[in-house]
Amino acid sequence: MVSRLEHPAGGYKKIFESCEELAEPIPAHVSGNIPAWLTGSLLRMGPGLFEIGDEPFYHLFDGQALMHKFDLKDGHVTYYRRFIRTDAYVRAMTEKRIVITEFGTAAYPDPCKNIFSRFFTYFQGIEVTDNCLVNIYPIGEDFYACTETNYITKVDPDTLETIKKVGFCTTIVIICGPLSLIDRHDFVYNYLYLANVRQNWEEVKKAAIRAPQPEVRRYVLPLDIHREEQGKNLVSLPYTTATAVMCSDGTVWLEPEVLFSGPHQVFIKKKFNYYSFEFPQINYKKYCGKNYTFAYGLGLNHFVPDRICKLNVKSKETWIWQEPDAYPSEPLFVQSPDAKDEDDGVLLSIVVKPGVTQRPAFLLILNATDLTEIARAEVDVMIPVTLHGLYKP
Predict the structure, then answer these.
(1) Do 90 and 71 meet the contact criterion of CB atoms below 8 Å apart?
(2) Is 59 annotated as a binding residue?
(3) Which GO terms describe its biological process (predicted)?
(4) Is 302 annotated as a binding residue?
């Protein structure tokens, strides 16, 4: 007899099922009062097609790129979605098989080719995917969908039409990821993966399956360390307990201040206990690169986002929005036009309830001050998982 351990968020898997794009925007059922000033579009990216014919995709970043849009105007809301016409998507739909290798899914030569054609296909090298499902961001007046490769796709944020594919290798030499931050001076800040390549592969695999204590930590990096004495704490800021100690070999040992800590994960005897803070956001419009107080993000319970969190990074006070069997997306902060305080605005998040047959998904609008619900706009279709996005006024 096979014994199975049921995951407490088993219904979450339904948001990893393929869906169809919409021929036109559909109206949403609005409850509550949407602020009159909130007029714009919430744009989100994520996977929407998780198999081609009988061939499944095996990685979260392999599902084909689907662009979502909630339009808000005069208290009314519509929802629309379309697949990005990338080379990976168009060729897969044409040949009815996976044509371009993705992150966790290998593409194989066309079985209809003869043996010599398949042989040369292997030696042409792996074609890099342009499946831009991770994020969308503006460059000037244009909008681009992107992923973890050197290709981005220009899209129309109004019609969701695909305009053109852009390859960084032929335009600019740059190493970057899909999460970019643009400040008030139009500088773009990005991040880079650093892979630790070792001969001892077994140790790397062991590190990959560990689940450390879920915490939000503040590290303080001293800028001038050349005149400091050994063994001294270089942090002199009065509002933090984080330390940076000069070592005898010239390195600096950092100890963080824990701002937000969830309980340890337990996966023994059908007990689940995991709570962390992910997908952080702040009021980027006014506090980008400045001393901010509030951060917003998702609370992850047993590796599944099931709540929206607000954190005061100075006092460590927290606020929570949560609803049974509901799974929100990354909350985006939108500042009110006459804002005086840092948290004067709303949070926008797409929430799915896989166990509900009618109106299983909705756009949630929260008061960013205390995370109370202002309004929601429910739709009659399931919305697959989304990764990142933006609010376009």
Answers:
(1) no
(2) no
(3) retinal metabolic process; zeaxanthin biosynthetic process
(4) no
